Amino acid sequence: MEQKKQHQLPISNINDNAYLSLIEEFGLEYRIKNSDFFEYFTYEIYMVLKKEKDLFPQKNAGIQMSKLELVHILKIQKHVQLLFTQSELENSKGLIILKYLKIFCSFLRKKEISNLYYMPPKHSRNSFSKMNLEDCIIRKFEKYLEIKRYALTTIHIYRASIKYFLSYSNYQQGKRHPNEFWQLSIHQFEKHLTKEVNLEKIATSTAYSYLKAVRLFLRFLSEENQIHFSYHIPKRLIQNGKRSNEYASIQNILLVIEKIFELSKNILQDISIFLIILETGCRPIEIENLNIDDIYFHEKLIVLKCKKSNQRTLTLTETTLSFIKQYLQIRENYLPQLNSKALFLAASGTGAQIRSDHITHLFRKFNLKVFNEIRFTPKTLRHTFITNALNHNIHIDQVKESVGHKHLISTHYYFYRDINHMKKLFMDKKLFNGG
């Protein structure tokens, strides 16, 4: 019945030649013009948009696609959802239509017709991936760390490290994993980390951090009676990291921003997160902790909070606020959990609030896309923010409060990037004038 409806759509009754021409160009460019759903897609978009009076400059004129906004795209989405709610469109076919809608928005951006960023609703998957299986043991490990009273930030770091380790273990949920399995997995992971260190892709201290997480994970397995051996990190991979003041150049930052716009599947959320960190120097955990009501659009303010720095209120630019506003229009498509007030949600479609390790992964992914290496992290942008603030003569006490440092000595550290600031600091203490 549905297939019959699709072939009887009165496309010939659409008298907007400019619209039809644009849609045809879109279909040809993305090679979907001959798909079973393209005609349906063309018709349904037209039927929704022709009801929007703000898209028509005058009566009987064609649709002004340059005036298309996210609110119109969401009306199309709502219409498609209604069709398969009323059993007029199968769920799988509806998802294809919404996928076309996302591609169409990209097409309009490419043609510089309308600057739209759309993401279809997330949907549940029936099949379980390897990572889904891994999540079960990782959740148990997280519970173990909570009982041991580890800080939330530390738990998130260990979680990301163990996910990385398990990717080298062929772990399968429900399968018995003897000592030999875990010992082989550790050997493979150590071998991988050693190679990364030798190729200078990571520092030895980074490898050591991963292995400390693995050591704790194995202690958890031992207490669960899943293994019966103790793990000792090889001496060659033991090295504590040195405190560093990382710095990201504006050129590298812009390249990553450009790549987010080009490749991200969650553009509005990803760019909002990136710009908030860039403008405030906040920590990933503070992004995780953000609620919707922590953004004050009229006052251009954001409230950041975490245990380490308590709470502070900072300003945001109009640009960043505009992306957050657009993101909030499609936030429901991330299927937020009931009563969830979290601003940013997991891209997996679980509806849970975003985790700080996802934010770290976001930076890692787009750095690799641009540079084939990790040139800067969220921590780097935090360091860059502090350094730039000091270099622009913002008072050190103000910078301290802005970034949530508990002790002024933490902020003093960043003066070393500018010898003139350092000299002035010591002169104020009469160390350069014989006093």
TrEMBL record:
<feature type="domain" description="Core-binding (CB)">
    <location>
        <begin position="132"/>
        <end position="222"/>
    </location>
</feature>
<comment type="similarity">
    <text>Belongs to the 'phage' integrase family.</text>
</comment>
<keyword id="KW-0238">DNA-binding</keyword>
<keyword id="KW-0233">DNA recombination</keyword>
<dbReference type="InterPro" id="IPR010998">
    <property type="entry name" value="Integrase_recombinase_N"/>
</dbReference>
<feature type="domain" description="Tyr recombinase">
    <location>
        <begin position="243"/>
        <end position="427"/>
    </location>
</feature>
<dbReference type="InterPro" id="IPR013762">
    <property type="entry name" value="Integrase-like_cat_sf"/>
</dbReference>
<dbReference type="InterPro" id="IPR050090">
    <property type="entry name" value="Tyrosine_recombinase_XerCD"/>
</dbReference>
<dbReference type="InterPro" id="IPR044068">
    <property type="entry name" value="CB"/>
</dbReference>
<dbReference type="Pfam" id="PF00589">
    <property type="entry name" value="Phage_integrase"/>
</dbReference>
<dbReference type="InterPro" id="IPR011010">
    <property type="entry name" value="DNA_brk_join_enz"/>
</dbReference>
<dbReference type="InterPro" id="IPR002104">
    <property type="entry name" value="Integrase_catalytic"/>
</dbReference>
<protein>
    <submittedName>
        <fullName>Site-specific integrase</fullName>
    </submittedName>
</protein>
